[in-house]
């Protein structure tokens, strides 16, 4: 493996061996004339390297004991030899032309970072309401990338740009991808949306997993506002009450199928109320935001 490496695919994983195996199968089938390596970063210290043997010389397994997916991604980037870093998640399935399409975009457009299309799919037995909500409003890179915000489910970065920016903020357990891409754009680097660079991501399977995610986003949004911007808890709660209620109507309006709009309105309202409860509990010290898990 001494030949030049074009892409370094970086996949953090945490107690997710079954889905990681499916992800790896899709990555290793990528059709591209360029060479690539795959760096799996295990973030669960109790798991051993023997659990991540994929029988392919392009695969390297690293271990990052410090908790947090962005710590794991930084660890992978440190070891990467590719010109481009290709980030995805262990529960994602990449398109066979994922790397080849990214290569075309980097060769044909002036891009430093690239956010691709994320298609949501429903796993057997999963909650249909959650799927409808997330396929309409989760991972909408077509909307967020033009605003300077991309997600690591499907994100490419020139390695020299990643290194110049200092990587992901290792203090963040959630939202670090948006922080990183926003920081890159504010520094003058160009983030492009590429609909042909595609991956598939499972929708949340149940209401419990769906609302755990909302709790994590609320708690770590609170932490980030407190640490980075020195905002008080009451200020962040007030901002949420004043501003995020509008998302109910924005998301309902953006939903393409009229038959799905009532469900979107209902779930968006539930998210707003639930986050209000979580933030209120944090403000009065019932919930410790620092202890909300990253996974």
From TrEMBL:
PANTHER family according to UniProt: GLYCOSYLTRANSFERASE (PTHR43685), GLYCOSYLTRANSFERASE 2-LIKE DOMAIN-CONTAINING PROTEIN (PTHR43685:SF2)
Signal peptide: none
Protein source organism: Rhodohalobacter mucosus
Annotated transmembrane regions: 263-287
Protein keywords: Membrane, Transmembrane, Transmembrane helix
Protein name from the UniProt record: Glycosyltransferase 2-like domain-containing protein
Record domain Glycosyltransferase 2-like: where: 8-142
């Amino acid at each position: 493996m001494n030949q030049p490496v074009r892409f370094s695919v970086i996949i953090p994983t945490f107690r997710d061996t079954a889905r990681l195996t499916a992800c790896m199968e899709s990555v290793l089938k990528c059709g591209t004339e360029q060479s690539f390596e795959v760096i799996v970063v295990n973030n669960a210290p109790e798991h051993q390297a023997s659990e991540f043997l994929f029988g392919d010389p392009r695969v390297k397994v690293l271990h990052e004991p410090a908790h947090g997916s962005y710590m794991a991604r930084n660890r992978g980037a440190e070891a990467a030899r590719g010109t481009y870093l290709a980030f995805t998640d262990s529960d994602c399935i990449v398109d066979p032309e994922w790397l080849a399409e990214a290569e075309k975009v980097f060769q044909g457009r002036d891009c430093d970072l690239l956010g691709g299309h994320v298609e949501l799919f429903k796993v057997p037995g999963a909650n249909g309401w959650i799927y409808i909500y997330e396929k309409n409003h989760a991972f909408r890179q077509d909307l967020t990338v033009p605003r300077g915000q991309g997600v690591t489910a499907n994100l490419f970065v020139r390695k020299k740009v990643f290194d110049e920016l200092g990587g992901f903020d290792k203090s963040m357990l959630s939202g670090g991808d948006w922080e990183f891409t926003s920081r890159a754009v504010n520094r003058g680097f160009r983030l492009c949306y590429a609909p042909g660079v595609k991956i598939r991501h499972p929708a949340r399977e149940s209401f419990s997993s769906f609302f755990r995610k909302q709790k994590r986003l609320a708690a770590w949004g609170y932490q980030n506002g407190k640490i980075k911007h020195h905002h008080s808890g009451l200020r962040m709660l007030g901002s949420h009450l004043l501003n995020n209620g509008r998302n109910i109507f924005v998301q309902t309006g953006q939903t393409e199928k009229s038959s799905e709009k009532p469900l979107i309105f209902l779930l968006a309202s539930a998210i707003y109320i639930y986050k209000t409860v979580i933030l209120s509990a944090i403000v009065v010290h019932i919930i410790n935001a620092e202890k909300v898990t990253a996974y």
